[in-house]
Amino acid sequence: MPTDPSLVNDRVFWACEAVFIKARNSTTSGGSDSATTGTFLYGVQSIGIDYSHDAASLQDTGRFQRRYTTFGKPNFSVTIERIISGNHSKIENDGVTKTLISGGKSDFFYESAGSGAYETGHLLHENNIGSCGLSTGLRNYDITLVYAGDDVEPAGGLSSVNVRQATIYRCCLLTSIGYSLDLSGQLTESLTFTTHFAENTATSGYTYQAFNEDSDGDGTDDTRTGSSIKRKDFDFQYTEFPEQVKRMFKLGNEVDDIEVWGIQSFDVTLDISYSDLMDVGKWRGSVTDVAEQNLFRQVELPMAVSASFTGIARSQYRNGIYGGSQTWNITDQNFSAMDGLESGGINKYYTDEPLNIVLGKDENFDNVNDKFWQIDLGDRNYLADISFSGGDTGGSNVEATLSFQNDFGDFHIFSHIDAVHTDIQTTKIY
Fold it and tell me: Which among 75, 188, 242, 366 is placed 20 to 30 Å from 269, CA to CA?
């Protein structure tokens, strides 16, 4: 905390916080970049910091009380929750006409490079997360948390007199991405990072594109419409569900020419673990560039890519409107390519379920989606779990949750694109 009492807030709360991000793929430089070169991160709902370290007391010969203690590397875990949204729009004075206002949208934090090609869009490609700090580089981030005065707003873009504190977490590795959407909420993004280094930094020079509350200059703040992505933005024209989701939730009827699925929520999660090779004679990142803390780190395979769908059950699995029946045979491929049939060769073990979630926004106001957010987990997903809950005497419905996994590292993410990327899949096994 600053020693000058004039720089201390009465409290710190959401209105005086701001998050700035700078990304790089280098693991040999960048650990001393100015924090003020980061980009203001829109849509942040919360940010949390956890600090830990390993400590060991040393035995002092001849004494039973241990006087000396060594400390291991500091470990910082940074968690960020965000809302995903498109561009804003305002309502004109007639109360009906909408006009698009560019700026302030919150895209996906991570987006795949390229334009839909499988290899260039894969997580391990050097233009994405990467695989190894020593060879391809690893995507890492400077995350700067700024506290402004609690008597001014907003936190970003203020003069130095209004910025109270700033802390930068250097060269953070992304360890988790999660997306969640349910009937009552908005599309949320959950991010987790890890690093060994943090420092207090400059308290001036942070800028961002502020909203123009009076874009038409009539002296009155604009009336704006919400642009966050909600359940109504699900685009079933492009979304691909695994066969098992169809069997469980496809109800066989339509409302306003839209199929009724009964899905209440979905969750998508990517977890990335890293190994850290020791380098004899060096404690990387401690005496040279901080970026070298990731030089000998590697992505551990397979990466955990998973998705789950929860919805209202109208029958037991595959025993109702969708047709067919399911026998839970004692076999080793109930839900693989041959759907449990004990025939064929190795092909019967192939995992081949597509999973592609597409959401859309009408930013031209012509009742047609023209901007899309796409979460494509490829065509190699498989069913890992089915669970049922609810149906109790309190009046709740029976709900089913189907969970899926893929071991290909397929996680192709695009936001605010003009056209949906189709058929993102591999033709060979790497």
Answer: 75
